[in-house]
Amino acid sequence: MRRLVTDTLITAERNIVRLPRQPDLLAAFTIQPIMFALLFVYVFGGAIDTPGYDNYKDFLIPGIIVQNIAFGGFVTAMGLAEDLNKGLIDRFRSLPMARSALLAGRTFSDIATNMLSMAILVVTGLIIGFSFDASIGELVTGVLLMVLFGYAFSWVFAFLGMLVSTPEAANSLGFMLVFPLTFISSAFVPPDTLPDALRWFAEVNPFTVVVDEMRELWVGKSGGSLWQAVAWSLGIIAVFAPLAVWRYRRTAER
Amino acid sequence: MPITAAIPHAQPVNSSTSPPPRGEPAISVTGLVKTYGDVRAVDGIDFEVAPGTVLGLLGPNGAGKTTAVRVLTTLQAPDEGEIRVAGIDAVREPARLREQIGLAGQYASVDESLTGAENLVMVGRLYGMKRSEAKPRAAELLERFSLSDAADRVVKKYSGGMRRRLDLAAALVANPPVLFLDEPTTGLDPRSRLDLWAMIEDLVGEGTTVLLTTQYLDEADRLADDIAVIDHGKVIAQGTPAELKSRVGGERLEVKLEDPAQRPQAVQALAALSDEEPVVEGDTVTLAVRQRTGTIVDAVARLGAAGVGVEDIGLRTPTMDDVFLSLTGRVAETEMDDEEEAAA
Fold first, then answer.
1. What is the pTM of this model?
2. Which helix (H) or strand (E) holds B314?
3. Fewer CB under 10 Å: which end of chain B, C or N?
C-alpha cells in the first residue's frame, strides 16, 4: 500500500513535469477555456435569456467550469494512449512498482491540471464581471465537488484512451462522446428552452445535476442537490474505474 | 605425522568450497507455451542460461522471440511451462522477479518528454530507490553511456543511438543480475551498433547474465555464448556459435559463374560433391562439401566437363548465415550487410 502511494506520486510527478513541454496540451487547458468563456459571453451571451440571473456571465461561468473539469481527463486519455503506443507501459510493467500506480498516477495528476484550468476560468470570469454569491464554506465545497467530478471523468477518459490505439484517436473519441453530453445540459442554456426530447435528456443529465449544484454553491441559486452531484460522481468512478483497470490489463498484457 | 595426514583430508573440503559449485542457471525455461487465440506464438521451448553468460535467441521476424521475452519478463503470463529467473518462479512471484531483471526493448521505451536524467531518476525511484540514491546512480549511468552532455536534454531531441543507450541505461539502474535485450540494435546505424555491442560485452564481463533476441546473425555470433535458433515458436537448434556452424557441415564451396544462365548445368555438375541441395543466388552457387582436400580440383574438372565457365571458385568456413539458411530454409534478413562489412 505504501508502495502504491509512492509510485502513484512518482508517476503523477512525471505527468506534471511533462506538461509544460507539450505546448499543444498546455494550451488546451489554459488558453482554450479562456477562449470559450469569452466567445460564449460575448457572442451568444446577448442572445441567451437566463431568467433569474443578473447577467449571462453568472449563469455561464459555473457551467463552463464544469465542462472544462470534465474534459480535463483528456490528458489522461492521451497520455495512456501514448504510453501504450510507444511501449513505455512495458518498461513500467517490467519494474517492481505497484502496477496500479500507473493509472492512479495518471488520474491523480489530472487533479492538478484541473485545478489550474479552474483557477484560470475563475480569474477570467472575475475580470469580465462574474461575481460570487457564496460563503467561504460554499466556495470550498464547490472546489471539492469539482475535484471529485473531474476525478470521475479522468476514469471515463482513462477507459476511452485505452479503447483506441493513438493519442489523436483518444482525443477525438473523447471529444465526440463527452462534448454533446456537456451541451445537452443546463451548462450553457436554461434546459426549458430546449425541444422536448433534449429537455428530457438535459434534466436527467449528470452535467445538469452538477452544474445546478455549482450554481447553488457559487452564485446562490436554488435548484441544486449536493448529494445527487456527489452520488453521480461516485457512481461514475464506480463504473469507469473498474472498466479502465480491466481495459488496462487487457491492453497491456497483449 | 598428524600434519601430513591432515592435508589429504583437507583437500576434498577445499575443492568443494573454493571453486563455487555450478549453481542454478540464471534463467531456466521448461515447456514454455504462449498462445494468442489459435496462434501458438511460443510453442514449447526449453533453455537454460548459465550465470554470467549470454544466450542469443535468434530468429526471423514473428518467430516468437519477443513473445518469449515478454513472458520471461512477466509482462505476460505463460499458458504452460515453468520459468525461473535468478531462482525465482515467474508465475508464482512475478513481483519479486521484477526486482532482479532489467528490460531494454526493441522500441526504445523511455519517456520522450522527459530529459535523460529525469528518465533514469524516475526508473530508479520506481525500483524503490530514494531520490537521493537515484540521482547519483543516474549521473553514473549517463557518464558510462556517454550521455552526460545530453543529460538535461529532452529525449525527443536524442538520436536513435542515444535513445537505445538511454534505454539500456534505464534497464541497468538497479544493477539487475539478469538483463533482457529485445533486438537491442534493430534500426541502428553501424557505428551505434558497434558501440552498443561493446557496452553489452562490458556488462557481461562484470557478471551480468544476458538474454538477447536478434535477427542479426553477426550480432548473435559476436555476443552470444549460446544460441537458440527459434522459428515458428520452437527452438530448432541450440548450441555455441561454433557448434551450430559445425552442425551445418564443414566447408562451403562457392562458385561464381561467368554466365548465370549456366546455373542448372553447374548445379547438376556439382551435386555429387554434397549431401545437400546447392544454393543458388545470382551468379553464385554454394554448396556444403564433404571434404576439403581435392574438392576444388574435382569441382573444376566436373564444371569443365559440363562446359560451365567459372569466374571464381573458393572454399570458405560456414557463417551464421549458412546456419540460419540450413535450419529455417530461409535467407536471413540482409538489409544491413553492406554497412556491417564496411564497419567490420
1. 0.81
2. strand B310-316
3. N
